[in-house]
Write a structure and sequence with these properties.
The protein is an alpha/beta fold. It has 17 helices and 14 strands. Helix 12 links the parallel strand 10 and strand 11. The protein is globular. It binds adenosine monophosphate. Adenosine monophosphate (AMP) binds next to helix 3.
């Protein structure tokens, strides 16, 4: 397939020729018709697959020249580096198109950006916080946005931008096309899609289910966190064999918990990366692991995406990934450059169905190893493993749903006041036929005269 097979236009063809790009990447050819058709799209693709052009080519193809100043395309990305990079890519593609693109991000002077926005623009590329600030200040009007692109959603949610995304959704026009790209599938991403997307079409470059031939996979059935930890301790004591070990967990809290425990067992040998750590901390951790100062690195799926480290002796899946693709990404961190790599998967009873999904993606079973008898089976459970115990009926405690009962709203009939206008005289006249009030001067006067 070449770009000529996509229904582009001359300015875009010319820009692509200048760039020397001939063939669309798989995500580009697959996403093109979906984005062009106006449907919501969820693209699963990593950086380097050409995902920026995958959404920009159809958007630019259909963006008509306009004199209006409010932007029509909004692209949200998690970091300022990505704002700069995406703006740069759009500018390359728009070389022969007359459109106005602006990148905005936090940590810089907002007034300069306000002035730039006031000049008028077609496409705005932004980090969520700064975009919201500009919208609230009313300098930036979002009422004309027709297309919303959220790039690297997994990172965005992992960095805690969910709330800001909600705020932005609230002020965007309801009729719009949503386009989203994520490198990894996570529960948070899945929830967001279900809440805000209308029948999105999923475009995914099939993750190869075929593991590299030089990766040796094995697995253990382990009942709980602390038994996993005991097993891990026994394995990691073999320093010659487990020389550079990448340990994956699904979420930040688990990463911290595991790191703290490993730090006690193997002081000074371990580091951790997840999105609550500062970028400097993360970079330092990766560097120390790469240089061999630290033998063990604990990482979450999202943060380990960009890791490019050679000679990883073992990848340990401390938990079993819910999305089988994540397992493929994890194990691909070892067995690089034709070196032999080892992977170990630890699964509890609850994780068995995820393990089966992984095996069916790979169309092979992972060799199971019995836990050695020397490993202590712990009965202690961590918070997430304990069943939630329901409290028995407690009459003192207020009902949690906080719904006042119907009696609160419906007053008894005798207490219901119905305003018919007028005053109490209506009631009096009904009862006594004639008005009888002490102040009826005329009545008194008449009676006096007769006397
Ligand atoms: P991205 O995944 O969007 O970060 O893109 C990765 C790199 O691939 C960028 O430098 C793009 O300029 C480049 N690229 C995008 N599409 C193509 C293509 N069809 N052929 C060659 N390079 C491309």
């Amino acid at each position: 397939m070449t770009f000529r097979d996509l229904n582009l236009n001359t300015p875009l063809y010319n820009a692509l020729d200048d760039l020397g790009f001939e063939q669309p990447t798989p995500i580009q050819s697959e996403a093109f018709s979906v984005v062009a058709s106006g449907k919501d799209l969820v693209g699963i693709a990593q950086t380097g697959t050409g995902k920026t052009f995958a959404y920009m080519l159809p958007i630019l193809r259909n963006l008509k020249f306009s004199k209006q100043d409010n932007p029509r395309v909004l692209i949200l990305v998690p970091t300022r580096e990505l704002v700069v990079q995406v703006v740069n890519e759009i500018e390359k593609l728009s070389k022969y198109i007359n459109n106005r693109v602006l990148g905005v991000y936090g940590g810089t002077n907002i007034n300069t950006q306000k002035q730039a926005v006031a000049q008028g623009l077609d496409i705005i590329v932004a980090t969520p916080g700064r975009l919201y600030d500009l919208a609230v200040s009313r300098v930036l009007q979002l009422k004309s946005i027709q297309k919303l692109v959220i790039d690297e959603v997994d990172v965005m949610l992992d960095l805690g931008f969910r709330h800001q995304l909600m705020n932005i959704f609230d002020i965007l026009p309801e009729r719009r096309q949503n386009i989203m790209f994520s490198a990894t599938m996570t529960n948070e991403v899945d929830t967001l899609i279900k809440e805000f997307f209308i029948n999105p079409q999923k475009v995914q470059i099939a993750v190869s289910g075929t593991p590299l031939h030089n990766i040796n996979q094995s697995r253990y059935n382990v009942p709980n966190f602390y038994t996993k930890l005991n097993l891990l301790e026994a394995l990691l004591k073999n320093r010659d064999n487990f020389s550079r070990v990448l340990i994956f967990v699904a979420y930040k809290k688990m990463a911290d918990r595991l790191f703290e425990n490993l730090e006690e067992l193997f002081p000074g040998e371990c580091c951790v990366i997840h999105s609550n750590k500062t970028q400097n901390y993360r970079l330092r951790s990766i560097e120390q692991f790469r240089e061999g100062q630290h033998r063990l690195l604990v990482a979450t799926d999202v943060m380990a995406r960009g890791l490019d480290i050679d000679d990883v002796s073992h990848v340990i899946n401390f938990d079993t990934p819910e999305y089988p693709e994540n397992y493929m990404h994890r194990i691909g961190r070892t067995g690089r450059a034709e070196k032999q790599g080892q992977t170990i998967l630890l699964s509890t009873e609850k994780e068995q169905s995820s393990r089966e999904d992984i095996e069916s993606l790979m169309q092979m079973a992972i060799d199971v190893i019995e836990i050695p008898e020397t490993i202590e089976i712990s009965t202690e459970l961590i918070e997430e493993e304990r069943d939630i115990i329901k409290e028995r009926h407690n009459p003192i405690k207020r009902r949690t749903d906080d719904e006042p009962g119907p009696a609160f709203h419906e007053k008894k009939e005798k207490n219901q006041k119905i305003n018919l206008g007028g005053s109490y005289r209506r009631e009096v006249s009904k009862k006594y036929k004639k008005p009888k009030t002490r102040g009826d001067k005329n009545y008194n006067r008449k009676n006096k005269r007769r006397k």
